[in-house]
Specification:
Blueprint (H helix, E strand, L loop, with lengths): L1 H9 L5 E5 L40 H4 L7 E5 L9 E4 L4 E4 H10 L8 H15 L6 E4 L17 E8 L2 E4 L12 E6 L12 E8 L4 E5 L5 H5 L1 E9 L5 E7 L3 H11 L5 E3 L6 E5 L9 E6 L4 E6 L5 H23 L9 E13 L4 E7 L13 E3 L3 E8 L5 E8 L5 E5 L14 E2 L3 E4 L5 E2 L5 E10 L6 H5 L11 H11 L7 E2 L4 E11 L4
Parallel strand pairs: 1-2, 12-13, 12-14, 19-28
Antiparallel strand pairs: 2-5, 3-4, 6-7, 6-11, 7-10, 8-9, 8-11, 9-10, 11-27, 14-15, 15-16, 17-18, 17-20, 20-24, 20-25, 21-22, 21-23, 21-26, 26-28
Helix pairs in contact: 3-4, 6-7
Length: 525
Amino acid sequence: MLTDNIREQLGADGSVLMIMDACHSGTASRGMAICRGTEKVFSEPGYTFRGEPDKGNFDNDDESGIGNLAPMVTLSGSDQHEVNFEYYDKEKDTSYGSLSYAFSKAMMDVGPNTTYRVLFDRISINMSTLTPRQSPQICGEVDMEIFGGKTEAPEPYFRVTKFLNETNVMINGGNLMGIYDSTEVAFYPMDTKDPDDAQAVATGTIIHTSGINSRVLLDKAYDKETISYTRVYITNQNFGDNDIYVKIDLRNNLEMEEALIARISEMPKVKITDENPDLVVEMNNEFTRGSNHLQIITADEIVLYAGEIKSANTEKYIDSITETINSYLQVNLIKKLDIKDPRIKVTFEIIPVTYEWDEIEEYATVTSELDIKQFYNDGNKLEFPEGQVFMFKIKNDGYSRIYYQIIDIKPDNSLEILLPSTNVWDERLPSEFVVEKKDSVILHNDLYQFLPPYGHEYLKLIATRQPIDLRMIIQTRGAKIRGNSSPLEELFRTSYTQTRSEPIMVKPSQLTVQTISLIVVEKKE
């Protein structure tokens, strides 16, 4: 067996990672994405994914007769009964293996203490926005440090790799590091540790990116010696292609189709396409229920809108459709939000609990904390049954206090701010949601419960150095707020109200975003 031979040569002190970005089985519908490989199941007859430590070709050590093997972890692009879709980069007009791209992107943010489980969580989050219809899998020694702990932590800056001319240079950062065209950068002396305390040598704008490199147009001409020996920091980060692509399949209703196309043409971040759509607006086809039944469905086949066209008031239905599309656009941007300020070192975790309810005081008290490991499914993904109660733990490993907000993105693409609470009886201010330096908090008084809809859910912690408040922006859907707003608040507001097709920018030196990906399932009786 090939893998056993490799593991035997490496020995018990070695480490093997196998990545399988290949198609398993299943069928595609609506032609919504490009599939890879074959529809034949890529496994031995009768094989069932176990989600337990891999022993080499699904055999254990005793049966193979080989001892002293290097531990092994296997990453698969999809479940054995799913199609593995390609990730299509619309901006570059290029397709990639979805797992290969998500893995490469996740590896940009690992350090010597990062485990394969943490890496897999990041891969799952990346794939949720790339190819949401498939479920990546991991098996093996998932709690082992990547490559035996021999990876190096990424630097918070980039370097000039090539001097092209007096106004153009190449740097060692690209799409995989979250750098896209129009991102703004600044060049600092090589001994700079904190750009806020230093003077920039030069500034520039990214004009072309690839996976790991970018071309920078400098603000003016510089000689090679001045610009080459610098550290490059991002000052304003563009989030890349935030457009969404919509397929329109309205049959037997030409009037509504023409009206919808006209309205979408006024939405700068929404494009109409027949291939690789993010959303499908459909009516009177084989996927809708009955005559004149209209629905809007996502790439992972979540229905965002469904209803029967009962009147000739086309404008009313067009309003509902475009409002649903706009909401999806805004939530999709927040789902992709992934920013790390190296000075804000924060993590958060879910603690599942049991509780007792005081009927008189109408108050819940935690009675015990449950082991999170019991909630990992066979694919090593967090999976919670409806009704499970949980609380958060937030840890600040940095050297300054941080303020936080927690956002919940549900399977139906709806968005809710959990903390600070939107409940009228909760009078706590955003400034009260704070964790001091080198400290941690467990939020015993803020209990939550997993509820339908079922599917993939995302919890996002947004940590900043100054208190912010996103509640009013989301509740008013981006209506103008009084006073000065932070760049993050402006980002959220703009995602609702943007009227021009321009980059959405934010300063990465002001916040850190952490994400927990999980699955909510129906409770078993």
